[in-house]
Amino acid sequence: MDQLLPPLFAIFQWQNFLLMILGTFIGVVVGVLPGIGATQAMALMIPLTWKMDITPAFILLISIYATSKFGGSLTAILFNIPGDNPNAVTLIDGFPMAQNGQAKTAIGASATVSILGGLFSAVSLLVFMPVMYQIILLFGPAEFFMLALFGLSAIAAVSAKTLVKGLMAGGIGILIATIGYHPLVGQARYTFGTMYLEEGIHMVPVILGALAMSEALILWMEGSSIVSEGVPLSGSYKQGIIAVFKNMPLFIRSCLIAWVVGVAPGAGSSVSGFVSYASATKTCKNPETFGKGDVRGVIAGDTALHACAGGDLLPTLTMGIPGSNAMAILLGAFVLHGVTPGPQIIRLRADLIYLIIFTLFFAHCISVFMAVGFSNFMEKLTKTRAELISPIIVVFCLVGSYIMREYWQDMLVTTFFGILGYYMRKHGYHPIPLVLGIILGPIAEFGLFEALSISDNGPLIFITRIPSLIILLCILAVVFWPYIERLYLRKKAVPPAG
Amino acid sequence: MSDPSEKGKPALTAAELKKLRGELWIIVPFFLFALYLFAGSFRYKFEASTVPMIIGIGTAILTGMRLFYIFFPQFRIGEFKETGLAGGFDHMKEEIEEETLKGRIEEPEAKTVAFADEKKAFICIIGCFVVFLLLGYIVGTFFVIVGTSYYYGYKDKAPLLISLVSLYLVVYVVLYKLLDAPADFGLLLEPILRSLNLL
How far, in Å, CA of A493 to CA of A490, rounded? Predict the structure, then answer.
């Protein structure tokens, strides 16, 4: 309780509360805006949080992360176009409901499950945190190194459609991180005698370029805005709220599915929404009404979108293993504010974790009132043209990269990685492993030598310690999974002799 | 023994081959970078050289194999078609989507991005960098917003004004005034302003 109350009070300090409202507003807006999602918005906000204290910084970032999906649900229900990829599941029943004159009912149901799903996420994190703490007490430097390696390999294996492309991008990220002074021996590496490179390539310009500026380039090239006319707001919000409470078993089942899918690295809200929806169509009575404007479809899909945040955050906060792209950005924010991602957070900054949990819940609540209250404004936002969104992203990227260290070269790095990030996406190399390599590479390198320095058996420490060995096996399983699966399937396909 | 002519028969169509060759823009720099860092690591102390050496050689081998595949796809070395977990999840999602959505989403027609579109966007982004470099971010923001919008033929004054005002609220009021971000007027504007005693 001693650790729970200070973060709760911190949220309700007026400056922090205002930031939460601002973050929620940004989250809802980026959820509605075509072509930009929570990951890009969080990346753009990182430089702005640089001079802030860690508490308000994370209130802002988590508010954006938590609330973008509800904005996307609104556009799915009213315009038949998902604001972000995960919201595709909302429109299956949301838009037919709106066409049947039940738009408000669909929005009411979506809003209610958003709040309850946020609550589930927060409670699940609170419940599992002490368990994770007990596990983490078993960890030493060898495990810290292995966890950093696991974070790198997991995201490499999950972010790119092709495993090896993810590993290549991750490798390049680690190599970029080796430029500059070595953290232990202080030797300058690959600097070409330039002062700029002696400090190394900072992760913020890379994050802004590879994740946000590349998105601006794509928007310029492809252009996008929601041009179709929306459905008028009709029906009753109250009916939607009542529908959720009438379908409580469905809500609980969807929460559990979402949580399990959320914990698996790479699956995220997009997959959890569809898995939950598919499960509802198979387990509910009268499944033939699904897809024709059944409120249970909205409940199943949207619950999963919001409830998976807990599962997504758990491995990120406790082990430093990001479950999604947005979580990789969050790890970057931790590093920027001087907190080493991974078990150290739960050991040294448990207050920060509780702050994140409370923010997650309250931001969900605020987002609902905000999105419903400003639905007319949101409707106008959906018409925003790409030609207007792209320059705003570019300005944020260039300003953000400059103000961190006041080097014009950082703006050059951002521009370079913007173009590189575009080409990487174009050819199936997702930039997230590269970014994560830059964030986790130095932590892994430091952990490696720290573990070796206390080891009597040299590198054998990584396999003689049981927790470290288990993590190593997990890494091998993630990296070699496709090959193991192929061997298994081949074996299964061979008919028995005779 | 298999017939070498059969083995050497390319399995890819001309379009697939062209798409594959496009990967050279990524793979060649990655390969050279990894190789350079691996080779350069030998001159550092053990602690400083271990990571770039191991990761450098590993990445160079993978990118080298991919490079080989791009030039000689018939040998299938470096094809790397194994999907990671993301591929598995995507497949699962696609299956469910196919089952549930059944073409319900109004998919906007995917625009084919031509080289001219790419060139235009790259010029735009490099132009933005140059503007910020020469004029700094406080003044540069105005030129980037107005310049790029006009460059892309977007001239609606009201949305432009709204975005300019909101951006100046963030850049000038929040960042510069409240958060003490550095004053920056760029390599060109700053000397001019100084000579006019305006700074």
Answer: 5
Instruction: Look at A426 and B22 and tell me if their CB atoms are within 8 Å.
Output: yes
Of these ranges, A312-316, A352-356, A412-416, B15-19, the one predicted with the greatest mean pLDDT is A412-416
Distance between CA atoms of residues B163 and B109, nearest Å:
28
Q: Is residue B9 part of a domain?
A: yes
End-to-end CA distance of chain B: 80
Position B107 scores a pLDDT of: 54
Per-residue pLDDT tens digits for A466-492: 889 998 998 888 788 777 777 777 777
pLDDT above 70 (res A23): yes
Instruction: State yes or no: pLDDT of A156 exceeds 80.
Output: no
Least CB–CB distance from B23: residue in A178, A402, A427: A427
Of A46-50, A304-308, B11-15, B32-36, the one with minimum mean pLDDT is B11-15
Query: What is the residue range of B9's domain?
Result: 4-75
Alpha helix ranges (H) inside A320-385:
325-336, 343-348, 350-373, 375-381
A364 confidence band (pLDDT: 50, 70, 90): confident
Using CA atoms, how far residue A249 sits from A108, A243, A253, A425, in Å, is 18, 12, 6, 40
- Tell me how close the Cα of B196 comes to any Cα of chain A, in angstroms: 24
pLDDT digits (tens, 9 = 90+) for A284-293: 888 778 888 8
Average pLDDT of A249-278? 80
**Over the stretch A332-342, which tens digit does the pLDDT of each residue have?**
888 888 888 77
Last residue of a domain, one of B57, B75, B93: B75
Structure tokens at A124: 């699940």
Interface with B, mutate which of A392, A406, A420 (most B CBs under 10 A): A392
- pLDDT at B106 > cutoff 70: no
Say yes or no for a CB contact (<8 Å) between B48 and A423: no
- Give domain status of residue B84, yes or no: no
Query: Chain B residue with minimal CA distance to A407?
Result: B133
Residue A91 has its nearest CB partner, among B52, B104, B117, at: B104
Q: How many whole angstroms separate alpha carbon B40 and alpha carbon A467?
A: 35
Is B131 in contact with B143 (CB distance < 8 Å)? yes
> Do A293 and A100 form a contact (C-beta atoms < 8 A)?
yes
H/E element holding A127? Answer: helix A103-136
Q: Do B44 and A189 touch (CB under 8 A)?
A: yes
Which of B37, B86, B93 has the CB atom closest to A178's CB atom? Answer: B37
Can you tell me the ipTM of this complex? 0.87
Q: Mention every residue, 6+ apart, whose C-beta is less than 8 A from residue A108.
A: A235, A236, A237, A238, A239, A240, A241, A243
Number of domain units in chain B: 2
pTM of the full predicted structure?
Answer: 0.86
- The domain boundary, picked from B75, B93, B116, lies at B75
Suggest the residue from B23, B97, B113, B125 to mutate for an interface test with chain A (most A CBs closer than 10 A): B125
Element (H, E) at A181: strand A180-181
Count Cβ atoms below 10 Å from residue A350 Cβ, excluding itself: 17
Of A16, A495, A188, whose CA–CA distance to B49 is shortest?
Answer: A188
Of B146, B143, B119, B148, the closest CA to residue B133 belongs to B143
Asked if residue A211 lies in contact with residue A263, where contact means CB atoms within 8 angstroms, the answer is: no
Residue of A nearest to B56 (CA): A175
